[in-house]
Design goal:
This protein is mostly helical. 70% of the residues lie in helices and 3% in strands. The chain has a two-stranded antiparallel ribbon. The longest helix is centred in the C-terminal third of the chain and has 22 residues, at 669-690.
Length: 704
């Protein structure tokens, strides 16, 4: 039995071992492909979408103390560092990290992050720009200069670095530094726009000779840029620059040098057209003809269409047009007809066509072309699409009035145009005013008033009100002006200029009470576009009327709204100029009140400005006591130092700056005491050095 059991146990063990070695595989009964195929990409996408759906929103966190804030900073920095560690080449992670540190005013950390990012990818333009913008935003000018220098040294072909560097230096008023950066840029032979930026920079500071020298480098043969940009337009720009600054002989020499430079093999019509127009402006008509003929004889006809056109225009202006009139007019008319057929809403083509027709044909033909032109109404009722179209009507009306001398047709043109405009959406004030001025020229005042009244009723605008009021003022219809001003102010109550003009009108008419009431209504408006101008006008009005008490009340009311230092100074100067015996005490009292009110002002420069004005007053009108008092109130200008750190975190020295310390400020008293003690110590030290005969000299110095 034991042997049998052992034998059976051995069989079972072998059977179990066999099962472990050969696992069973499920048999696939149906090996046909499924009807709906699912790819691995689809599986991954669905898994990602479900992951986003199941992700709960982050809880809102409120930070209440410093420990929580430090914990929050630590977590955020760890998150940013993990993102960077996962993929160092994604620059957006570095920028977000640095901007977050910048938002916490951790400028040194932000610099460190930017420097680490530059070590990863120093060719990234955005990274350099963000770094420099951070320094400029925080007014770290020297740091910004260092970054720009590194950027243009590392990537000198990125023009954006040069533009921003020069712009920063110019905004700082460092013209010499900006010029030096431009010179470094020009050594790299940049594109054309860079040279023009340099030239415009010099012209902004009236450095015409420097600009000319840059142009010479730009276009001269065997110079810097002629090998890179040998283009006709560069010569033309140089010549126009000389012409603009009234150096006509230099401009002519530039054109002649350009003709010699390009020779007959590379002739360009644009150069000769510009040369001819220059001579035309100088009234050298024979030279113009020689230039045109010289160019037309040597340039192929298919390349000289613009040249031929300008030559014909010149001959029409200054020459005998009998020989070329029929050919030129018919040719141009055919071209314009083709243009307006291809695009009927090309109003520039219609303007050129009408200009040609007006100069060479009869009135009926001109009217026919005008009618065809104004029939092409813009399809969209938006004002920007009608701005060119409306001038067709204006030119039509002016032609009928001035050239054809037909006043009835002119009136019909104006009325038809005004009926066509969609006044509920927009209008053109110039059209109403031109129509009214036309009726006045025809001595038909009722129609002019009716037109302007209709315009104000349908589509009120500031320009319409001003034109109507000006008309009635010229006619001395002051009651109508009052009514128009009332309507105008109902339409635009925030317009300070209208209130002031209305009050000035009443002042001229001698109705002071009405003018004062208008000013009171004006300053009581809840919203004004220029309130400071209105208040100044009101105060000047009361001063002219010698109503000094009312002027004082006005200043007090204004000071309730604003505590600006200029208002206080103006108030004090008013009291000084009031011309009474009490003017000096009143003026001094105003300065006292202003000084008390300005103690809480954060802008120390404004308070210094007030005290300087007060001191100038006391120097002229005060006594020794008052002068001594104001001298005690004057602040002390203290030079302070603050520590600077380099980009790597090391000490970069100290920076000096100026601050004002006012004796009246109690917060600054400890500092003042410290300064007084320092001065006393210095004085005692000097006295001890002078007392050389004192045997206890060393003891006294040590005690001091």
């Amino acid at each position: 039995r034991g042997g049998a059991c052992a034998q059976s146990g051995g069989k079972m063990a072998s059977t179990a071992a066999g099962k472990q070695r050969i696992p069973k595989v499920a048999k696939v009964k149906n090996k046909a492909p499924a009807e709906v195929q699912i790819t691995a990409e689809q599986l991954l996408r669905e898994a990602k979408e479900r992951e986003l759906e199941l992700l709960p929103p982050p809880p809102q966190q409120k930070i209440t103390d410093v420990e929580e804030l430090n914990d929050y900073k630590l977590r955020k920095r760890k998150t940013f560092e993990d993102n960077i560690r996962k993929n160092r080449t994604v620059i957006s992670n570095w920028i977000k990290y640095a901007q977050w540190e910048e938002s916490l005013k951790e400028i040194q950390r932000a610099r460190s992050i930017y420097e680490r990012a530059l070590d990863v990818d120093y060719r990234n333009v955005t990274l350099w720009l963000k770094y420099a913008e951070m320094e400029m935003k925080n007014r770290q000018v020297n740091h910004a200069r260092n970054i720009w220098d590194r950027a243009i040294t590392t990537l000198p072909r990125v023009n954006q670095f040069w533009y921003k560097y020069t712009y920063m230096e110019e905004m700082l008023g460092n013209v010499a530094g900006s010029r030096q950066v431009f010179e470094r840029w020009m050594e790299w032979q940049p594109e054309e726009q860079a040279w023009h930026s340099y030239i415009n920079f010099e012209l902004r500071y009236k450095e015409v000779d420097r600009a000319r020298s840059i142009y010479e480098r730009y276009i001269l043969f065997k110079a810097v840029l002629v090998l890179v940009h040998p283009d006709v337009k560069n010569w033309i720009k140089y010549a126009r620059f000389e012409e603009k600054h009234s150096y006509f002989a230099h401009a002519r020499k530039v054109y002649e040098r350009a003709v010699e430079f390009f020779g007959e093999e590379h002739m360009d019509e644009h150069l000769y057209v510009a040369f001819a127009k220059f001579e035309e402006n100088q009234k050298e008509f024979e030279r113009v003809r020689v230039i045109y003929k010289y160019a037309l004889d040597r340039i192929p006809k298919q390349d000289a269409q613009n040249l031929f056109k300008n030559y014909t225009i010149f001959e029409k202006k200054f020459g005998d047009r009998r020989g070329i009139e029929d050919i030129i007019v018919s040719k141009r008319r055919f071209q314009y007809e083709e243009e307006v057929k291809a695009n009927p809403h090309n109003y520039d083509a219609w303007f050129d066509y009408l200009r040609l027709v007006e100069s060479d044909t009869d009135a009926e033909t001109v009217r026919e072309v005008y009618e065809r032109a104004i029939a092409n109404v813009p399809p969209i009722q938006e004002k920007r699409h009608w701005k060119r179209y409306i001038y067709l009507w204006i030119n039509y009306a002016l032609y009928e009035e001035l050239e054809a001398k037909a006043s009835k047709r002119t009136r019909q043109v104006y009325q038809a145009c005004l009926e066509l405009l969609p006044h509920k959406k927009f209008t053109f004030a110039k059209m109403w005013l031109l129509y009214a001025q036309f009726e006045i020229r025809q001595k038909n005042l009722p129609l002019a008033r009716r037109a302007l009244g209709t315009s104000i009723g349908k589509c009120p605008k500031n320009k319409l009100f001003k034109g109507y009021i000006e008309l009635e003022l010229q006619l001395r219809e002051f009651d109508r002006c009052r009514k128009l001003y009332e309507k105008f102010l109902e339409f635009a109550p925030e317009n300070c200029t209208s209130w002031i003009k209305f009050a000035e009108l009443e002042t001229i008419l001698g109705d002071i009470d009405r003018a004062r009431a208008i000013y009171e209504l004006a300053i009581g408006q809840p919203r004004l576009d220029m309130p400071e101008v209105l208040w100044k006008s009101y105060i000047d009005f009361e001063i002219e009327q010698e109503e000094y008490e009312k002027t004082r009340n006005l200043y007090r009311r204004l000071l309730q709204r604003t505590q600006h230092v200029k208002v206080w100074i103006s108030f004090a100067q008013f009291e000084l100029s009031a011309g009474r015996e009490e003017r000096l005490p009143r003026c001094r009292q105003i300065y006292e009140e202003a000084n008390k009110a300005m103690r809480s002002c954060e802008e120390k420069e404004e308070r210094v400005m007030l005290l300087e004005s007060w001191r100038s007053f006391e120097e002229e009108f005060g006594t020794d006591t008052t002068k001594e008092r104001i001298d005690k109130l004057m602040p002390e200008k203290i030079k302070k130092r603050r520590k600077l750190q380099a980009e790597d975190g090391s000490d970069a020295g100290w920076e000096e700056y100026y601050d004002y310390i006012f004796p009246e400020d109690t917060a600054n008293q400890p500092n003042l005491k410290l300064l007084a003690m320092a001065k006393l110590w210095k004085k005692q030290q000097q006295e001890s050095e002078a007392a050389a005969t004192d045997p206890d000299k060393d003891i006294d110095e040590s005690q001091t």
